[in-house]
Amino acid sequence: MSILESFTVWDLGVWLMAASAVVVVAVAAVRLSTRTGLPSLLIYLLIGVAIGKEGLGFEFSSMSTTRVLGYLALALILAEGGLTTSWESIRRSVAPAAVLATVGVAISIGIVAVAAHVFLGQPWSIALLLGAILASTDAAAVFSVLRAVPLPSRLTGILEAESGFNDAPVVIVVVLLSEHIADSPGVAYSAAEVLGLLMLIVMELIGGAVIGLLVGWLGARVMRYLVSGHAGLFPIGILAWTLLGYGLASVAHTSGFIAVYLAGLVLANQSLPHRAGVRGFAQAMGWLAQIGLFVMLGLLVSPAKLLPQLLPAVLLGLVLLLVARPASVLASCTWFRCPWREQLFLSWAGLRGAVPIVLATVPFIEGVSGVDWLVNLVFVLVVVFTLVQAPSLPWVAARLGVTQTDRALNLEVEAVPLEEMGAELLEVRIGDKSRLHGIELFELRLPRGAQVTLIVRDKASIVPTPTTPLRRGDQLVIVAAPGTRKVAEQQLHAIDQGGRLAGWEAAKGKSGPPRRPGPPTGHGRFQ
């Protein structure tokens, strides 16, 4: 009798109760994460350890299941990353991120492998494997932590694009190395085999990228035609189409991870309806994938076996953080004239998370002998250095002077499409340091077709007039006709940075300074 056949309605109730309780606790942990500065993923790991064999007694030890479910969760997380990323925000960062995700990964693998061989006495084959496992930054860690740090779009773009790109080459390298060690233990690669390995990696990456781009381009047209009028179904269809990129690339023996990220990125940056719904659904699925993934990884480890790995984990982590990562950044970003302060921050912000732990199960599954300790070592390294790096990121960014506080505190704009009206809705929040404070609505000089229709102040709604002054803490609702949203956002950002005369100096010879209008007309708009 199969497991599904023996699964009863009572079992369903028990599992739903347990799973729901875990998710509720994980959601509540976000508040703790916000207050303490610890990334929520670390709390999810500890939840898994707490309910595991040596905690509440739930036993889980299947490496193969971990790998399969881990790949699924990573695909969902990368899909969410692609679907919530603006191409404009990362366009200038793609080139350095791509070099960092390839050349930088190779440098990191080499340096960590030397350290593992010299300091831990590991044979070169296992040392290289360990370097590859630790080479990838984690998309979940980056997406959940860095978006809370007020960084310039260039830095955020590099880190997010890198974390979206580097899973693919690292997974390929770890799998190929594991297969080689399992099939030919103690036999080194020949020069011809190394060249063939590099060619295979390049071909898999190119193949996955092509499939991802094609799936994203075609999906935008198909989904707009099939379900554009169904707001509830559309986000489901978009996410499913994004994951189709992973499936097609995997079946074609190319990189599914690069395919799913690029498919999501292309889809997100098309003129699709229901963008807010798609973004919200993708983020919800990304959170669910993170919770499930990190709780599962916490279940996998035994706390009693972690302590012996503390010293080697700290040693390799220090090499990774202080030598390998800075060398990777220096070799990859110097060519793009990246300032040294930004390079230092990129070096510190190479967060590790679930990806190395999932990859540590691959050698065991492929039949490599004597690597039972890998998962425990990688787990300890991830926990220790997440505790060190993640909470310190805002402080490090401030000390290096790479923060952009205006971007985080002064103005926050979110666009929500109104397909039926052929317009878009902008929600504008005026921060504590914004120079929009005290400006009257007519002084915004928004383009024709963009109107402020509502102001929410101290939880009260105000229908504004042209002379209504803005205040810090206000939330503005602006309706923008087609083609006016971008201009309206640019004007708002200009005044937010430069004050009420921003943008006027260039045009004062044509129209003069802004004039105060006559008495309000009562219709709540300005012309």
CA distance, first residue to last residue: 74 Å
What portion of residues belong to β-strands?
Answer: 5-15%
Low-confidence stretches at least 5 residues in length (pLDDT < 50)?
Answer: 506-527
Q: Find the structural class using helix and strand composition.
A: alpha+beta
Widest sheet: strand ordering: 1-2-5-3-4
Helix coverage percent of residues? 55-70%
* Tally of DSSP β-strands: 5
**Radius of gyration from CA coordinates:** 26 Å
What's the order of the H and E elements? HHHHHHHHHHHHHHHHHHHHHEEEEEHH
Indicate the overall shape: globular
Mean pLDDT: 83
Outline the biggest β-sheet: 5 strands, antiparallel
Q: Number of helical runs?
A: 23
Give a structural overview.
- The longest helix has 37 residues, at 191-227.
- A hairpin with a 4-residue loop joins strand 1 (411-418) and strand 2.
- The chain has helices at residues 3-6, 9-36, 40-51, 63-83, 87-90, 94-119, 124-133, 139-145, 153-165, 167-183, 191-227, 234-251, 256-268, 275-300, 310-333, 340-348, 354-359, 362-366, 374-389, 393-400, 405-409, 485-498, 508-511; strands spanning 411-418, 423-430, 450-457, 460-462, 475-480.
- It is of the alpha+beta class.
- It has a five-stranded antiparallel sheet.
- 43% of the residues are buried.
- It starts with a helix and ends in a 16-residue tail after the last helix.
- The radius of gyration is 26 Å and the shape is globular.
- Helices cover 62% and strands 6% of the residues.
- The model is unreliable at 506-527 (pLDDT under 50).
- Helix 6 (94-119) crosses helix 9 (153-165) and helix 15 (310-333) crosses helix 19.
